[in-house]
Structure formats: structure tokens, C-alpha cells
Specification:
This protein is about 5% helix and about 40% strand. It is mainly β. The chain has one domain: Structural Genomics Hypothetical 15.5 Kd Protein In mrcA-pckA Intergenic Region, Chain A. The radius of gyration is 19 Å and the shape is elongated. The N and C termini lie far apart (about 45 Å).
Length: about 130
């Protein structure tokens, strides 16, 4: 069954809406991309209007910004320390926006959306 972002067929009370239509292509969506810690793996997806989207499935490298030196550098991700999105993501090593990761340079907070943008950008925490 296809996932959609359309209105449900039933009301909160349990009754049905009177005039309901079929699913539309522009309402379709997909399962969330849960970017995990591991060797880099990227998937290319086709979007609406033939636009391309790069989805990051696995990664073990992050672009870390150092506020003191005001420079970016690549750092290897050691582990996931904290995830505000879901506490179980820490055990499963899932990286989302806002995740605190342990890198070679120290702790950093992810500022990008890896499942949408195809890269992990982070800012070093002091």
C-alpha cells in the first residue's frame, strides 16, 4: 500500500468523510531515510518533475565546522552520543539533524539533514 500525505478516509469520531477521492501522485511519500553509521553508501532518487535527490544511507565521515578557527574539516565519526529526535536512535546508530556525534576533533552537532541532503555537516561543540 502506498504512503500518502492526504487526508484520512475517516474522521476522528470514526465516521467516514462523504466525498472521498483516490490517492494522487503528488500526495505520495516514502519511508523515512534512516542514515546509519558505516561505510559511505549513497542512493539517487527521482523526484517530482524529474528532479534528483541524493539520499545518504550510510556514512562515517562528517564535514565539521570549527567556530574558533572558522574553518571546515573532514572528521571520522566514532559514535553517536545523543539524539533529540528519538532516544532509541542512539542504540541503532541513526544520524538525523540535531544528533550529537563523537568525532576525531571532539563532539559535534549535526546541522544538515543527511536523509534529504546526502551529506553530514556538523558544528563543533566547545
Amino acid at each position: 500500500m502506498a504512503l500518502t500525505s492526504s487526508r484520512p478516509r475517516r474522521k476522528v469520531t470514526g465516521g467516514r468523510y462523504v466525498a472521498y477521492r483516490k490517492k494522487r501522485v503528488f500526495e505520495l511519500r516514502r519511508e523515512p531515510t534512516l542514515t546509519k553509521l558505516g561505510a559511505k553508501k549513497v542512493m539517487k532518487l527521482r523526484g517530482v518533475g524529474a528532479s534528483k535527490k541524493t539520499v545518504l544511507m550510510f556514512s562515517d565521515v562528517a564535514n565539521v565546522y570549527n567556530p574558533k578557527t572558522k574553518k571546515y574539516s573532514k572528521a571520522k565519526i566514532k559514535t553517536i552520543v545523543e539524539n533529540a529526535a528519538n532516544r532509541h536512535f542512539i542504540i541503532r546508530n541513526i544520524i538525523t539533524k540535531g544528533t550529537v556525534i563523537e568525532t576525531d576533533l571532539g563532539k559535534a552537532k549535526v546541522t544538515s539533514r543527511p536523509g534529504q541532503e546526502g551529506t553530514i555537516n556538523a558544528i563543533l561543540l566547545q
